[in-house]
Amino acid sequence: MRRITRIATVGLASAALAFSATACGGKSSSDAGSDSKGAKAALAYDIGGRGDQSFNDAAYAGLAKAEKELGFKGTEAEPSDGESDADKVQRLTTLARAGNNPVIGVGFAYAPAIKKVAPKFPKITFGIIDDASVTGENIANLVFNEEQGSYLAGVAAAKVTKTKTVGFIGGVETPLIKKFQAGFEQGVKDTDPSVKVLSQYLTQPPNFDGFSKPDLGKAAAQGQLDKKADVVYSAAGNAGSGSIEATAKAGKWAFGVDSDQYSQKGLAAYKEQILTSVTKDVSGSVLNLIKSVKDGKPQTGEIRYGLDKDGVGLAGSNPAFTKMTEVTAAVDKAKKAIVDGTVTVKTTP
């Protein structure tokens, strides 16, 4: 059995007992969770794990809220470098047998595993963030219009650049990250066609280091800065922290992603140069799914979060950004145009 490396404010002993019982052949898929003494929910993290200051941390924030507001006990399961789909299947199976409901895969990489595991536990709700390809009666697909939030970032970047050159760094070249690129590039060009966008990816599948290694993001950002970019937007998970570091140290504007990275403690040394972040309400989606299970009406199917529901957007935590009234006015105008359908944002570059 794969070791569960972090347990969220649950009490390590009780979680260990639950997992020990499973290892000894305790619960089967048909009765998993039926004798649970309390409601439990689990997160299976994506590449980088908790502490990435971005995507995984946003999911954890939702679990933490569920613990505080709903009385759930939360369990966190970490990934390992270079793991296979079989490892993910084992992780999800272990979490389900321990009585967690829902069990949430943080990231599209869990799609093959959820496809295999969910049918074996029909009474348990499985959530998957950033994937709608795997469906089932007990599967909730928590997806976002990343391209819409990225469009707003493109508008802001085009407004604040002084060199007429901005950069986009994608962690791994996947359809999901291409949505970030497409929205950003369109937002820039719709605002100021004279602005040049430097776009690049850190790795190609099946190499997913571009989501986990800050040094890759740092080197890529430095390369774009050397080409006169004065705004760098990264959609690269933990690798994005390296991009933020390099950009901030150069005194240029960094744009964060997924979480409000201006407010992340791990990035506090660079916060003054994190002008804004393209946020996804990952924490809200996790909390909403857990609440739906508690209410006896578990969410299933595609649950989409876009600008119309403030499921994506731009963070306004940095006072430097909110003081840029011309920029924020342009962003607000673009948001309205997207919500009312005047502007349709592309999902591919």
Write the layout of secondary structure elements.
Elements: H1 12-23, E1 40-44, H2 55-70, E2 73-77, H3 85-97, E3 103-105, H4 111-117, E4 126-129, E5 139-144, H5 146-160, E6 165-172, H6 175-191, E7 196-203, H7 214-226, E8 231-235, H8 239-249, E9 253-258, E10 274-280, H9 282-294, E11 301-305, E12 312-314, H10 319-322, H11 325-339
Parallel strand pairs: 1-2, 1-3, 3-4, 4-5, 5-11, 6-7, 6-8, 8-9, 9-10
Antiparallel strand pairs: 10-12
Number of helices: 11
Give the C-alpha Rg: 20 Å
Q: Ranges with pLDDT <50 over ≥5 residues?
A: 1-37
Net shape: globular
Question: Which band does the percent of strand residues land in?
Answer: 15-25%
Count every beta strand, where a strand is a DSSP E run of 2 or more residues.
12
Chain-averaged pLDDT: 90
Structural class: alpha/beta
Strand order of the largest sheet: 2-1-3-4-5-11
Which H/E pattern describes the elements? Answer: HEHEHEHEEHEHEHEHEEHEEHH
The share of residues in helices is 25-40%
Task: State the major sheet.
Answer: 6 strands, parallel
- Taking the alpha carbons of the first and last residues, their distance comes to 42 Å
